[in-house]
Design brief:
Elements: H1 5-22, E1 27-28, H2 41-52, E2 58-64, H3 71-84, E3 90-94, H4 127-136, E4 151-158, H5 162-176, H6 182-215, E5 222-226, H7 228-262, H8 266-289, E6 292-293, H9 300-321, H10 328-355, H11 363-383, H12 386-393, H13 406-417, H14 419-438, H15 455-466, E7 471-479, H16 492-501, H17 514-517, H18 520-534, E8 539-543, H19 545-556, H20 562-571, H21 574-580, E9 585-586, E10 591-598, H22 606-620, E11 624-630, H23 632-666, H24 669-692, H25 704-728, H26 733-742, H27 744-760, H28 768-798
Parallel strand pairs: 1-6
Antiparallel strand pairs: 2-4, 2-5, 3-4, 7-10, 7-11, 8-10, 9-10
Helix pairs in contact: 1-8, 2-16, 5-6, 7-8, 7-9, 7-27, 8-9, 8-11, 8-12, 9-10, 9-11, 9-27, 10-11, 10-23, 10-25, 13-26, 13-28, 14-24, 14-28, 23-24, 23-25, 24-25, 24-28, 25-26, 25-27, 25-28, 26-28, 27-28
């Protein structure tokens, strides 16, 4: 290697240039479909009923006034609406200035369908009376105006991207088609990526233009932009900022810590060169492989910096410890020979930990696992090529510069003098941790994923509290029927879903008339379910066919008959029917949809809410043939529950696999068993702490236990490897422990501090799951370090090696 250093340097440089070229393909993705179980049965049904009940994609602008809405506010709404409608990509806008005035006009059932209905802009009525009608309307309250009449919303309907929608459907059909070949899949994926990138870029420009327009408005009012696309766009911006911010701050931390440890600029620069090379190569490989980086995997650069420096410090520490001016080349070769296997196994155990993410059914989690597995391979190769190559090129070393830690002696004396107390304390902490683990829960509050000082949090909270909640939940109901006729014009998409969910394939020869479909029993069921949801504290705005019926009965001042409702349906203008009826009723499919929004900012148990709704539907209705509780709330909850389940199941596999690896490395059951204990305690302590603190697990903190064991076991391997070598050299156990504390213990302490500080940098994020992941993983590293430097030596004293 060293004899051909110029050739190796050339190869290294060329490979880096290739990776830098492909780095331009590096992509970020924060779309909502990245957090869905793609093989989830509920997700398939979600796609099915969205064919039956198509909904437009939209954004919401919430406008808050310090006092009740007045004429100036209405003037501002009109001005803002005129500005927003000119933005490319905006199809239409609905607000309080567009809402029809139904009650004040004293309309009755016979004439309300045959005359033009006035709105705020052309009405003769007092503004406050109109607002009072809207604020109590079954249709408009908590939708476009709050009950206090201080907040209203503009619903911005976005133009549909037909090219992207079509390619998504084609891609789904090809992937699901078992006879599709790899060339077809590769080609459709390429087209899909290009159109998705175009769609994301255009949507980002659209949102930026809306934000710019809002920033130019009257500053008497506060403006907030919300909606699914807004959340995705803001999350993407957070991810971009986090990657840059974390990389810089982690790098600064590492420079400071390396200089503090080695007190020599050379030993700061060399590991940074090796680490930088690994990061650049990995970014290029991600671009080459067309992997997309999401909010979950966006921390890979920070993790690479931390893990690479950790491995480099162990190598450098060993090299400095055995350095000799007489034969520096042989000393370097000896160091690499000694450190190869412990470093190989530390990389391998961490690969096993991140490999557990591959058992998930969630694509971004799987991608995170793949990215980190390849990253660890790149780190290992770089640490044993780039680092030793530059050490060889710049061999001078000052052995006198070496920081000593008095605390290592204290840890050593504590471990050999109080072994019994250490075991008792560890056992008590472990039992308490088990109680915390038992109380772990998984929650999915989107609002709480962002810091309170961010605009997205403020906007979501305002919409959540004043405009009927944020996270959608849908109830799809199929009523029982007697006559089932066949329709040859069945939609292929619907047929596929019918087969998946055992729905009726016997559709209708002709469209059913509303008067034949409507019954008192059906209307009663819809009303009861609607009211049940409205009475739940966790639920905000509820929308269904009953909302329109309730409004019509208020206008009519009495209950409407089935005949009157049929006339209302048949005579209603299409633009009202499309907005108020068809999103909630499909006569042809004998299905109705009841939509609600859950108040995300409240401290609620979403799993319990879902169970209560299912229980109510199961026990209360004889007219219901089938029902499905669905929507974003359900899909995301399913994802979290699946991830939690997969991580719990893989936890035992990880422990067993790492134990077998330790057994192969050390060829000692006792060493392997003792080596795994501190890491189990570290992982259980963190999970127990999270459970006792009643902090819900989320998309990132769920993975802490597996990742903690994978990273923390690295120090254990280095420590035990030194112990084994000392025993081979005929040291007794006490001498071996003392030597290990002063050599490997030094590296364990410094690398653990480096890793802990590195993870703590993630607390600078605006994305709360990232903050919690960083803080808890950093804490786990400190606990694992204490386990290696205190509990492990105490255990080794007792097992009689």
């Amino acid at each position: 290697m060293f004899a051909n250093k110029n050739i190796i340097l050339s190869i290294v440089f060329i490979f880096m240039c290739i990776c830098m070229y492909f780095a331009q393909n590096f992509k970020l993705d924060a779309s909502s479909d990245t957090l869905i179980l793609q093989n989830d049965k509920d997700f398939k049904y979600f796609n099915f009923y969205n064919i039956i009940f198509p909904t437009k994609n939209f954004l919401v602008v919430a406008i808050e006034s310090k006092k009740e809405i007045d004429a100036d506010y209405i003037k501002n709404i009109n001005s803002l609406k005129d500005s927003l409608i000119k933005i490319n990509g905006v199809e239409s806008i609905f607000s309080i200035v567009d809402a029809p005035i139904l009650l004040l006009n004293n309309l009755n059932f016979s004439n309300m369908l045959n005359q033009e209905i006035s709105n705020i802009n052309n009405s003769k009525y007092d503004l406050q009376l109109i607002l009072e009608e809207f604020a109590t309307s079954p249709i408009f309250k908590d939708q476009i105006i709050n009950s206090k009449k201080t907040v209203s919303s503009l619903i911005i309907y976005l133009e549909k991207d037909n090219d992207f929608s079509n390619i998504k459907k084609q891609r789904k059909d090809i992937i699901n088609n078992k006879v599709s070949n790899q060339n077809q899949i590769k080609e459709i994926n390429k087209k899909y990526r290009l159109l998705k990138e175009k769609y994301n870029k255009e949507r980002n420009i659209l949102i930026s233009n809306i934000k710019e327009t809002l920033s130019d408005q009257n500053n008497k009012y506060i403006y907030f932009l919300g909606g699914i696309d807004m959340i995705a766009d803001d999350t993407l911006q957070f991810v971009k900022n986090d990657i840059l911010k974390f990389s810089i701050v982690v790098l600064l931390f590492i420079i400071i810590i390396l200089f503090f440890i080695f007190r020599d600029l050379k030993w700061v620069i060399l590991p940074l060169i090796s680490t930088a090379y690994a990061v650049i190569c990995m970014i290029g490989l991600i671009g080459l492989l067309n992997w997309e980086v999401t909010a979950i995997s966006s921390n890979f650069i920070s993790l690479m910096l931390i893990l690479s420096i950790s491995m480099n410090v162990h190598i450098i520490n060993n090299y400095k410890k055995n350095y000799s001016d007489i034969n520096r080349k042989d000393n370097l070769k000896k160091t690499l020979k000694i450190m190869f296997w412990p470093c190989f196994y530390t990389a391998l155990t961490t690969v096993v930990a991140f490999g557990s993410l591959l058992f998930s059914d969630i694509k971004p989690v799987i991608d995170f696992g793949k990215i980190m597995i390849v990253s660890l391979m790149v780190i290992f190769i770089s640490s044993f090529t780039i680092l030793p190559l530059f050490i060889y090129l710049f061999p001078t070393i000052n052995k006198n510069i070496n920081l000593k830690f008095a605390i290592l002696n204290r840890f050593f004396l504590l471990s050999i003098s109080h072994t019994r107390k250490i075991f008792i304390i560890n056992f008590i902490i472990f039992l308490i941790s088990l109680v915390g683990i038992y109380n772990l829960k998984v929650e999915n509050s989107f609002i709480n994923y962002f810091k309170e000082n961010t605009e997205i949090y403020k906007g979501m909270k305002l919409i959540d509290q004043e405009l009927g909640g944020t996270t959608p939940i849908d109830i799809i109901i199929k009523f029982k029927e007697e006559d089932k006729l066949y329709n040859n014009n069945i939609n292929n998409d619907i047929l596929e879903i019918n087969e998946d969910f055992n729905l009726d394939e016997d559709l209708y020869v002709e469209k059913k008339d509303i008067s034949n479909w409507l019954t008192i029993e059906k209307l009663s069921a819809i009303k009861r379910i609607h009211n049940f949801l409205e009475q739940k504290n966790e639920v905000g705005k509820v929308q269904s066919l009953y909302s329109l019926i309730n409004m019509a009965e208020l206008i009519n001042k009495q209950e409407l008959s089935i005949f009157e409702l049929s006339i209302l349906y048949n005579k209603m203008p299409d633009y009202y029917k499309n907005d108020l009826i068809l999103p909630y009723l499909s006569i042809d499919e004998n299905l109705i949809k009841i939509s609600a929004r859950v108040k995300d900012s409240k401290d609620i148990n979403r799993q319990e809410l879902i169970q209560n709704i299912n229980k109510f539907l199961e026990s209360e209705f004889s007219t219901i043939d089938e029902f499905n509780v669905n929507g974003i709330l359900i899909l995301y909850n399913n994802m979290l529950q699946s991830l939690f389940s997969s991580q719990i199941k893989s936890f035992g596999i990880i422990l067993f696999t790492i134990f077998i690896m330790l057994l192969i490395l050390f060829q000692s059951f006792k060493l392997s068993f003792v080596g795994i204990i501190p890491n189990i305690f570290a992982a259980s302590f963190i999970l127990g702490f999270i459970g006792l603190a009643k902090i819900p697990l989320d998309i990132m903190t769920i993975t802490i236990a597996a990742i903690t064991i994978g990273i923390a076991v690295d120090n254990t391997i280095h420590y035990l490897y030194r112990i084994k070598n000392n025993m081979i050299n005929n040291m007794n156990i006490r001498e071996s422990l003392e030597d290990s504390h002063q050599t490997v213990g030094y590296a364990v302490l410094t690398t653990s501090i480096t890793i802990a500080f590195g993870f703590s940098v993630l607390s600078l994020s605006n994305f709360v799951p990232t903050i919690l992941f960083g803080l808890f993983t950093g804490l786990a590293m400190i606990i694992a370090m204490l386990g290696v430097l205190i509990t492990l030596p105490a255990s080794l004293l007792k097992i009689n090696l």
